[in-house]
């Protein structure tokens, strides 16, 4: 029971962060869960927790979703998930973390080099969903491929939430097909689900108070910090 309360509190705080900034909470929650959850179950259970968190975010901010972007993103995600599922339990993570961190840094500060705004949503959906099955928390990666400069902050946060709902839903289906039992942990998931709903409501109110220009600068700094953390984790594993 103590573990359920602890992770529920963590879910409330991290979902508030994500609802306010669009990214960050999932990575923090993954780091916290890693201290208590067996490694083989970490990514599946984190995926279930993030599915609930992002579903709640979509429920709270559904009016701002860019559905024109989401529909092809969804189709690409299905293809990417189907292609990577057979490899999900066997792919090395450390090198992927380094490459992912470097990509996020490049996409955040030199997006014009990658021409991300020219990426078709289906390509973005397929590539990021495949990586999510291997690396777990790829919220910063999805945020980096969204055409953020063309959208208002509410659209960025809401559309990112819908994209992550799609990805984590596919992740749950994928790991269930690999005989990973997630429902055995239903008390933990119930507590996290209720906590993320409250956190998303609190974060959405905070989002409305942040000026547009400050939102983009803080978001870029947050993405960079998360990317550097990924690089450090990957390099530490490779050198250890």
Description:
This protein is mostly helical and 240 residues long. The chain has one domain (2-239). Helix content is 78%, strand content 0%. It has 11 helices and no strands. The chain has helices at 2-21, 25-33, 39-61, 67-84, 94-109, 111-114, 121-135, 139-145, 153-177, 186-207, 212-239. α1 runs parallel beside α10 (186-207), α5 (94-109) runs antiparallel to α11 and α7 packs across α9 (153-177). It starts with a helix and ends with a helix.
State the end-to-end CA separation: 35 Å
The ordered string of helix (H) and strand (E) elements is HHHHHHHHHHH
The percent range for helix content is: over 70%
Overall morphology: globular
Name the beta content range: under 5%
Number of strands: 0
Q: Count every helix, treating DSSP H or I runs of 4 or more residues as helices.
A: 11
* Oligomer state of the chains in this structure: single chain
Rg: 16 Å
Number of domains: 1
Q: What ranges have pLDDT less than 50 throughout 5 or more consecutive residues? A: none
What would you call the structural class?
Answer: mainly alpha
Mean pLDDT: 83
Major sheet summary line:
none
Transmembrane segments: 69-88, 123-146, 185-206, 218-235
Protein name: Probable membrane transporter protein
Subcellular location: Cell membrane; Membrane
Keywords: Cell membrane, Membrane, Signal, Transmembrane, Transmembrane helix
Helices and strands, with pairings:
Layout lengths: L1 H20 L3 H9 L5 H23 L5 H18 L9 H16 L1 H4 L6 H15 L3 H7 L7 H25 L8 H22 L4 H28 L1
Task: Summarize this structure briefly.
Keywords: Cell membrane, Membrane, Signal, Transmembrane, Transmembrane helix. This protein has 240 residues and is mostly helical.
């Amino acid at each position: 029971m103590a573990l359920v309360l602890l992770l529920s509190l963590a879910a409330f705080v991290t979902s508030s962060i994500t609802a306010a900034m669009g990214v960050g909470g999932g990575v923090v929650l993954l780091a916290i869960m890693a201290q208590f959850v067996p490694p083989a179950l970490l990514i599946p259970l984190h995926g279930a927790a993030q599915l609930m968190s992002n579903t709640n975010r979509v429920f709270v901010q559904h009016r701002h979703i860019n559905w024109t972007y989401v529909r092809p993103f969804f189709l690409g995600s299905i293809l990417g998930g189907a292609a990577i599922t057979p490899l999900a339990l066997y792919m090395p993570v450390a090198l992927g973390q380094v490459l992912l961190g470097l990509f996020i840094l490049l996409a955040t500060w030199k997006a014009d080099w990658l021409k991300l705004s020219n990426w078709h949503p289906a390509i973005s959906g397929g590539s990021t969903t495949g990586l999510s099955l291997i690396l777990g928390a790829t919220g910063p990666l999805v945020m980096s491929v969204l055409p953020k400069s063309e959208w208002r902050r509410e659209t960025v946060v809401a559309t990112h939430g819908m994209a992550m709902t799609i990805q984590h839903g596919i992740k749950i289906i994928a790991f269930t097909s690999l005989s990973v039992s997630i429902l055995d942990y239903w008390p933990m998931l119930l507590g996290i689900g209720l906590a993320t709903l409250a956190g998303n409501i609190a974060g959405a109110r905070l989002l409305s108070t942040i000026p547009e220009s400050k939102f983009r600068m803080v978001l870029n700094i947050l993405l960079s910090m998360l990317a550097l953390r990924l690089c450090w984790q990957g390099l530490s594993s490779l050198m250890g």
